[in-house]
Amino acid sequence: MLRSGREYLESIRDGRTIYVGSERIHDVTTHPLFENCARTYAALFDLKADPANRDTLTYEAEGERFSAYYLRPRHKEDLRKRNLAHKRIAEFCLGVMGRTPDAVAGSITGLAMNPGYLAGQSGGHADNVLSIYEHMRRNDVFSTYAIVPPQGARNKDYYQSSGLAQPGLAVTSEADSGVVLNGVKMLATGAVYADEVLIGNIMPLAPDQRKQSITCVIPLNLPGLSLWARTPFVRPGRSEFDNPLTHRFDESDTVLVFKDVKVPWEKIIVHDNAELSRNIYVKTPAHVIANHQSNVRFATKLRFMLSVASLVTKATGARDIPAVRDTLGRLAAYEAGFSAMVDGQIEAFQEVDGGYVMFNRRYLYAAVHWAMENHSAIVDTLRELMGGGHFQFPASINVIQDPELESMFRNYWRAGDDEPVGRMKLFRLAWDLVGSDHASRATSYEKFFVGPAFAVRNYNFVNTPWDEVHAVTESFMRQYDAG
Ligand SMILES: Cc1cc2nc3c(=O)[nH]c(=O)nc-3n(C[C@H](O)[C@H](O)[C@H](O)COP(=O)(O)OP(=O)(O)OC[C@H]3O[C@@H](n4cnc5c(N)ncnc54)[C@H](O)[C@@H]3O)c2cc1C
User: Fold this and answer.
1) CA distances from 223 to 17, 263, 389 (A)
2) Does any domain span residue 348?
3) What is the mean pLDDT of residues 48-52?
4) Are strands 196-199 and 143-146 parallel, antiparallel or unpaired?
5) Residue 304, in any domain of the structure
């Protein structure tokens, strides 16, 4: 069942507990800090439900249509279909929203490609993986994830302290009906807008941290669960013109606090198995299927950044200066090169158990790493190309509502044939990409959303076929000797 935007908005008016500071937010679909982004998510559901996008954004199985991001790929063309669906969604948001509904759907789809990995392992609930997957694709569920413990919980003694003093999320009691969870999990991007959340552990746990290994997919309105949002960047009363990306795409990040939250057994994927809790992402296609989406999104964002960079240099009049062209050429090479890294994941696809295929894991981790290492420098280059342009414009476009100020603005801010409102529009957009609160949060997002850099480098290390790599040198060295 594919949902319309209106049906989606109805479903997230579910009484969930959201706080911005001490203010309780009762309905994100109408609250001024959240309603714009809720509309963006609704528009994404409408985009998918539009018959014109049917072939790109949905697939048919068993006589029903499902979102393309729930497709379990069996051959290269299925991978291409997933890739194109991600691209269509990312283009709608210019690649600046991380937690679109196609993101975490990839984790669950990847798990459902190899539930057998969980079968036979203590605490692994393989049947639940399949029923959760079926529930999510049949109900067109938008899920986010919270799979990192709070920073204060990194100290093992702290982690294992008892009762409610324990910050890291853990099972505190069990019954025939399910488990009870207490503690904190971070940092669920998009949780105020999602239907459900995947709770788990992407970083390894110590073997004795069995109670923290709980992995489940739950609705966000469970009694006892509260969502503590970071400061929203939308400023009520500020126009879209002055903050265009913030206005539509402030997807929000929230810490999830669990106070005696009851989770039924059928929602649980891993329980009481620290190693399995983390391995389900990297020993199944889950991490790869999910992060291809993040790669496609970043490629889309890079193209947007290149586009803004070039237009800004046109507006400053510097575009044809050789040094500026050189900089644009470098950015263009980054953009094309990164797109090739993403498309190459399809060409060099890998076969996996169960007759499925996935994107090339090594190429994927290389692209994840490239993006996290280079995003900030690219932002800085764009900022440099802007010069002080952004600061030369008035505080708000509302100057044009005053006839006298408008006339002065149109006269003094003109640059050659470029009229000032258009120039200001471009610089406001560029600033929202590199300098605003929204932009600043994005630089942290690109560094951390997939985990810290040392963990990503470790994925690259452990997936390298070192014997083959060593053989390159060793086979050459065997061709000569000391004599
Ligand atoms: C904007 C944003 C959105 C996010 N969205 C989500 C989300 O939707 N879902 C989710 O689950 N998570 C999300 N995250 C959380 C993200 O997964 C974590 O921030 C990330 O895993 C890093 O963990 P940390 O923030 O606790 O940093 P820490 O683990 O405390 O690391 C901070 C820094 O300390 C250093 N460091 C710490 N440990 C080591 C070590 N062992 N070796 C070397 N250096 C070390 C490194 O410099 C590291 O960068 C998001 C984060 C951000 C910033």
Assistant:
1) 9, 10, 50
2) yes
3) 96
4) parallel
5) yes
Q: How many angstroms does the Cα of residue 211 sit away from the middle of ligand 1?
A: 21
The answer to whether 103 and 198 are in contact (CB under 8 A) is no
Asked if the model's pLDDT at residue 343 lies above 60, the reply is yes
Residue at 245 is within a domain: no
Confidence class for position 120, pLDDT limits 50, 70, 90: confident
pLDDT bucket at 164, cuts 50 / 70 / 90:
very low
State the residue range of the domain holding 303: 286-466
User: Cα separation of 291 and 361, whole Å?
Assistant: 10
Half-sphere exposure of 274 (CA within 13 A, CB side): 12
In short, whether 37's Cβ falls inside 6 Å of ligand 1 is: no
In the predicted structure, residue 329 carries a pLDDT above the cut 80 = yes
Query: CA distances (Å), 249 to each of 312, 404, 439, in order?
Result: 22, 34, 11
d(C-alpha 456, C-alpha 372), whole Å: 9
pLDDT of residue 163: 47
Q: Is the CB of 281 under 6 A from ligand 1?
A: no
Q: Which atom of ligand 1 is nearest to the CA of 191?
A: 8
Residue to mutate (ligand 1; options 97, 154, 186, 456; most atoms within 8 A of CB): 186
Dist. CA 47 → ligand 1 center (Å): 33
What CATH number does the domain containing 360 carry?
1.20.140.10
Domain count, the chain: 1
Return the DSSP state at 94.
T
Distance 452 CA to ligand 1 centre (A): 5
Judge contact between 72 and 113, C-beta under 8 A.
Answer: yes
CA distance 249 to 259: 30
Q: In which band, very low, low, confident or very high, does the pLDDT at 1 lie, cut at 50, 70 and 90? A: confident
pLDDT one-digit tens code per residue, 357-410: 999 999 999 999 999 999 999 999 999 999 998 999 999 999 999 999 999 999
Select from 155, 291, 449, 461 the residue to mutate for testing ligand 1; criterion: most ligand atoms less than 8 Å from CB: 449
In a domain, 454, yes or no: yes
Matching residue, tokens 């807008």: 193
Kindly state the helix (H) or strand (E) to which residue 93 belongs, with its residue range.
Answer: none
Mutate to test the pocket of ligand 1, among 187, 201, 255, 438 (most ligand atoms within 8 A of CB): 187
Closest CA to 147 of 96, 72, 210, 212: 212
